[in-house]
Amino acid sequence: MVNKLSPYLTGFLRSVSTYTRIPVKANWEEQDGIAHPVCFLPWVGLIVAVLSAWPLLFFSWSDELQAIFMLLSAVLITGAFHEDGLLDSADGLVGGWNQEQRLAIMKDSRIGSFAAITVVFSILIKWWLLTQWIDNNEWQGGALSVLGGWIAVHVLARILPLLMMSSLSYVSSAQSKSASMIAKLSFRDWCVALSSLLLCFISVGLISLLLSIIALGIFFLIARVYLNRRIRGFNGDTLGAVEQISEALVIFSLLGFAA
């Protein structure tokens, strides 16, 4: 039994060490039969959600304060991994005139005006939506209900980059450190990734899950066409941007008409 789970455990630890700042030891030497680390991305989202939900334990805190510390904790746990992609994508996709220039701008470590504007509005929108989610659930399911939604946000948002990887070509202007984590998932890998949907079903229920999937599906189609036109594919930065926008969309979908 242990030997059968070993390829999955190794892949999971690799995923945690790549997408978070959690200090775990992962075996990178063995390759045969190991599940690809990227298929565990939604499950890494579960860890990020649970660890960053600690402000919910402080019932006397205001909704606004809980929301900002939940967002800040998630950023610290991931090392702003996805946020960095959003900023680079904003500068490159909007500021570049052609594919080569857009990809080159994304490689530039400096923050441009488009990135600065994007990060401000991204944080504000997610903070406002999360505040509303906390407020709406205070008198219903309490902290556990808020936690369930927060888990769904981080799990579902990390499924969309996997779909993007499977539907577009990988493009890069130079050697990228994220290239080793890019892969077309096998059937086994997809089973690992999509099994996280059961967790979302338990967390928020069928209706909320379906609404979120519909919203993400529409966004996926739009983003796919847009990226194909702008850079003829995807790269690590655009995957981070997709994940960040998906987080806001899931919270919005969970709120429904209350948003």
Q: Can you tell me the overall shape?
A: globular
Radius of gyration: 18 Å
Low-confidence parts, pLDDT < 50 over ≥5 residues?
Answer: none
Oligomer type: single chain
Number of strands: 0
Write up what this structure looks like.
Joins adenosylcobinamide-GDP and alpha-ribazole to generate adenosylcobalamin (Ado-cobalamin). Also synthesizes adenosylcobalamin 5'-phosphate from adenosylcobinamide-GDP and alpha-ribazole 5'-phosphate. Its EC number is 2.7.8.26. The chain has one domain. The mean pLDDT is 91. It is an all-alpha fold and 259 residues long. The chain starts with a helix and ends with a helix. It has twelve helices and no strands. The relative contact order is 0.15.
Question: Descriptors for this entry?
Answer:
259 residues, mainly alpha, globular, Adenosylcobinamide-GDP ribazoletransferase, cell inner membrane, transmembrane
List the helices and strands and how they pair.
Blueprint: H1 2-19, H2 41-52, H3 63-78, H4 81-95, H5 99-107, H6 113-138, H7 142-156, H8 160-167, H9 187-194, H10 196-204, H11 206-230, H12 236-255
Helix pairs in contact: 2-3, 2-7, 3-6, 4-5, 4-6, 4-12, 6-7, 6-12, 7-10, 7-12, 8-12, 10-11, 11-12
